[in-house]
Automatic annotation (TrEMBL):
GO terms for molecular function: metal ion binding; protein-glutamine gamma-glutamyltransferase activity. It catalyses: L-glutaminyl-[protein] + L-lysyl-[protein] = [protein]-L-lysyl-N(6)-5-L-glutamyl-[protein] + NH4(+). The gene is Tgm3. Pfam families: Transglut_C (PF00927), Transglut_core (PF01841), Transglut_N (PF00868). This is protein-glutamine gamma-glutamyltransferase.
Amino acid sequence: IAATQPSTDWHLKENAREHHTSKFSSEELIVRRGQAFTITFNGAERPEQNLIFIAETGPKPSKATKTLATFDISSTVSKEGWGAVVQSSSSSSVSISISSPHNAVIGRYRLSVQTGSSSPQSLGTFVLLFNPWSSGDDVFMPNAAECEEYVLEEFGIIFAGNKNHISSFGWNFGQFQGDILNICLAIMDRSLYYRQDPITDVSHRHDPRYLGRVLSAMVNANDDQGVVLGNWSGKYEGGKNPTSWTGSGEILQGWKKSGFKPVKYGQCWVFAAVLTTVLRCLGIPTRTITNFSSAHDADGNLRVDEFYDADGNHLEKGADSVWNFHVWNESWFTRNDLGPSYSGWQVLDATPQEESGGIYQCGPASRHAIKEGEVELDYDGPFVFAEVNADCMYWNYDSATGKKTLIFSKSTEIGASISTKAVGRDARVDVTRDYKYEEGSAKEREIFKKARKKLGLEDKFDPTAPKQEEVEQKPDISGKFKVAGSLEVGKDLNLLLVLENLQSDAKTVNVNMTAWSTLYTRRRVNQIWKDSLSVTLAPKEEKQFPIKIKYPEYQQQLTTDKTIQVTALCHVKDGIQVLVKRNITLDNPAIDIQVLGEAKVNKEVVVEVAFTNPINEEVKDCVLQVEGSDLLQGILELRIPPLKASEKSSTKFKLIPSEAGPKHLLVNFFCDKFADIKTFKVVNVIN
């Protein structure tokens, strides 16, 4: 009997239930480390005799690198290394409980068994993942509801828009669908770290800190032919517009299908969402975080400089920028390298903004270290600290003379309404206080100074600047843009410019106004409108000036980010200039989803999607895209006939849900006049 290949029963259902891996659809055993699993095999001759098991992973397994373990039967489960305990045996088969250490390397293992002096016989392969349910694991998360959300939940909400007007859209992470696990394992094997030294790379895969950093590099295409190619040009020929994706599955599968060529195109939320999928799939609790008015401090001085010309046009000068929003990740694990107070949520950012260690990767940076200004701690503290804390300096720049004059500076502009999805419900939670002390408080300024000091940027005055031209003067007037009416694509944009004289003598003001369509990074794309006005303000007087930008004026110029920057540069006679600006994000019209009847497992259910054309002209090239884990396979794409002005379209399609529970259906509608109108609906599937 011993000569025949042993046949193995992996007890897939029972093991998956015990290990929280039931959502994977795989014929292969998938288990979590630090926890026992049971297998039964036959063909072992008198099983009580010296069975020796061999578990190995990676290209050249060895005990020294902890990628090879040999272990025999013992009477109790080992706490330290790998172990095997007989559960039951008969003359022809034996059931064994196998346990792995809490810090085992994760990945695909080959398992074989040896009896006596015969050669080892293969039992097959299994995949070992991180275990947030186990107290010995670096990713241990004591709260079960958080494990459920941050590891097992396949649906997410990503926040966008701007700090005055937060919007959100759904995302299908889909970490348990189809071939995603195999693709995640392939990502690790294609990293620069693996290519340079596969043996060392695999031996480090027990460490979430290491893998988080490696995967933050691999999700972007820079350096390593990673998963997603970034594009912030506003032109997306040869690929998909970043705003059109609704889930990670299509991206990860596209990367594999193309022979691992980067998928076109991504922007920050795409990188963050794909990294969430990969890390949740591997068992590291992960979530997406949106930071509003997010600084990209390119020169590491914790300060962002913005330049404007005399007409109020925002100039592309200098490498610093402020984005309406930026999305990154937090993953949950211990920081044995830094100490217990730095454990918990760690910032990772897969968007390629600045190099770290020679390649585009970012993090993990301990969120606690960021809040306390401990910017010298690994990894990338100064960059992340600046994203939420940098001071803003606004300059007037004269290109003829090269002279720059400080208009004003602001220390409370950056890092607002830092947001993530709530645990167990579709709502926004504000985590700003976890990143910094209250804006404008003495403690917040103290931490800012501490961070500058650690970076060798000693303050001459706050915010920073030794040079005379950087000394701020007090303005004579103040101004702001107010929104009057709705902010919707297809409608005219109505604003009020409010100017107030702060002095007790009259002031004459010349105002140059511009409106540009921008990307969400505030990069200018097309000028929409310009105007100027002259006004005399009586002492302490406030005046309002209505501004109307008609839909036909901006329709052709608008980017798919639907963002417009309006600026007014006010030249006060015998006084200093005042810059008034506002970033506006327009909303798409609504789209409605109805589920007609009850949704049952493996039964057809009809869904109806309705859209009314809100504008006075025909819309054409209409497409509806639908996806949702456990509701349908892949992505359903439906073409819809053109819609005349005010016409309503109703589209029906069928779903066959594959699993019970609350499932999210994501819909994206686009046409020649409207880009990516997104919504989602919870479908309660019953057995």
